[in-house]
Amino acid sequence: MQQLNAAGYIEPLDAADYAFDDFFPEFQKFPGHWQGDTLYSVITRFGFLGVAHNIDVLSEKDAASYSVFADQRVTGKVGHFDWHLPNLGQMSLAAGNTSAYDIDDAGWDKLQEATMAMRGQVGGFFDYGGTFSLLNDGQMLAFAGIGDWITGVLEKNGAKVRTTIPEEGGLQWTESFSIGKGTANYEMARKWIQWITSAEGQAKSADMAAYPALVPNKKGWEMLNADNLAEAKRQNMVLGTRNAMDMIREGRIQYRQLPVQQSLEDWNDFWSDYKGA
């Protein structure tokens, strides 16, 4: 989002047009979506990335640490979703870095060492379709770089897979809407963002068939709890109990982002070296 804004591709938005008062406080002025007091993008959905695992082979307790990727039960059956940012962010946490993406040279060395140590366990690097099918049929028993946005679809259709957030922490992906610079359909786009961030839009969006997600609007949670409590429970979105928001508030979730102290090319080059090792 910051890159699109820096390139001048998106329009500023009027914050008063959107129901931020209904959002959890953590999302009312979400990082990267504002420039000073000017809004450029509205968060609509988010989710966590952790250890995706076959629950017939690995329990949630097993998957409570990234060290499970070294387990002999999954040798040759650990998959990577083929994108360096989520995978290396997870490996950064696994290596003991406090920040997943803002790391100095020593932290970068630790990340690379921890990642390379995992290479012998890995059965391949896959796109969305490959990740989906290989988890579904049990050819891969654990996956790095993904979360409930994939395993949730499979789980809801009866597959024995789940995503567990390890004790070392997980990452958050974020889905947001902006309006393109110079669009002829600004008003239509504005109304769409208003609807998708309303309670009704949020409840429907949370249970989207293509891929489920958490949502920032608390009233959307209330509607999902009322209309589909089973899905609210599955996604850890039940109000009045310990839920997904507690993981954020306890500091167990970090935002997926660009590397801070290395270049994006540094990370991409290492990912290519790792894949070829």
From TrEMBL:
InterPro entries, A to Z: SBP
Sorted UniProt keywords: Signal
Gene3D superfamilies: Periplasmic binding protein-like II
A Pfam family assignment: SBP_bac_8
Top-level taxon: Bacteria
PANTHER family hit by this protein: SPERMIDINE/PUTRESCINE-BINDING PERIPLASMIC PROTEIN, SPERMIDINE_PUTRESCINE-BINDING PERIPLASMIC PROTEIN
Identification of the protein by name: Spermidine/putrescine transport system substrate-binding protein
